[in-house]
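Title: Prediction job returns without error message
Component: structure pipeline
Severity: low
Priority: P3
Assignee: unassigned

Description:
Job completed but the reporter wants confirmation the result is attached to the right record. Sequence as submitted:
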Amino acid sequence: MASKAHSLKYARFINSISRERQPSLIREMTKILASAPPEMIPLSGGLPNPKLFPFKEINVQVAGGSPISLSGKSLDQALQYLPTGGLPALVTQLKGLQMDAHSPPVQVWENSDIIVTSGSQDGLCKCLEILMEPGATVILEDYVYSGVLSILNPFKPKYHTIDADSEGMNPDSLQKVLSQWTPGVEDPTAPKFLYINPTGANPTGTVLTAERRQQIYKICSKYNLLILEDDPYYYLQFQPSANRPSSFLNIDTEGRVVRFDSFSKILSSGIRLGFVTGPKPIIERINLHMQVSVLHASSLSQVLVSELLSQWGKDGFNQHIKSVEDFYEARRNGLLSAADKHIKGLCEYSVPLGGMFLWIKVPDLSSTWDMIMERGLKQNIMLMPGKAFQTDGSKSCQYLRAAFSIAPEENFEPAMERLANLIKAEIELEK
């Protein structure tokens, strides 16, 4: 399979605007300077002199660990420009993290790279903006993360939605939609990528099964699609490790997976750090996009995370992930218990195997929008109406999304009780 990985023509996926982007010489020189020998005299770039930075020391307490102290050269690095691709030490750590977690095939990994972004959504946005053309065909699930729709909608795409159930995207539905195009035949209307949120999906909470991942990968290979594996909840799963399906990155034998990871759910959302792993030609285009926008992700955040990962090591990182998953699993169980008590029978829902959300269908209602956005707010309960996750916002929707991540656990039961009362009143209104 190695030859196919090397022969994939990435020019097919990159749009005309991205093809025109050229490297910024200033940014390229900053990259060279990051690994230059001490005797190098840097007269090339306009880096501000760190002697004038008013911050002289930063100390961060780490739960269960040693404080992280930045001063002198380490602080200068945390407050200075970095190469666009990321702090070299952090990029090396992230490559090790991906190898440990996903073990991508060697022939693909040798032709892959990683770039640090300002949160995974920043990387996702930039990747979509290098792939999309106005009016392009887009393939995604019938309910999808609303942030992706906000990126895509200005392109006025032709959406083709794929059916999904409690096991995630349905491969048969994907094959049926793609069958209108002929594999191997150039067609400007054909899609270039599949967007998928396979683990603890937002909003549905599903974890795509291992069998379906294999089937979907084969279909995408047949129709020559990139797979945009948006996986911010990968480290937020509630199944035993032995039962967890491998990622698309793990089964990628052809170099067609672009993977998006996030630190928001496991370290901090405010540090705004994520990273993209994928084929070098795609990562290079994201890099060029960043060179003319954010320049690079936050230096301070990158240095702090690198120091934290160094302190933890592999075992410490895994221990932290387990504590995060245990915490959210207990909260999921609490919300499920409250839901079983108050809305079972009124609503349909399945146990989320990852993520932060309970996806609820109200079969006796034609729409949940007014109930949530008008009457729910007046009753001091906030949920997300399912319409927010549809490609066609004009259609009514029977679903709603409840997050179990932040609300106090003692409020789960009154929340579900209020929801039950809302639903009963709404059913009467619709009669």
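Comment from assignee: result matches the submitted record. The chain has two domains: 2-31+53-313, 321-430.
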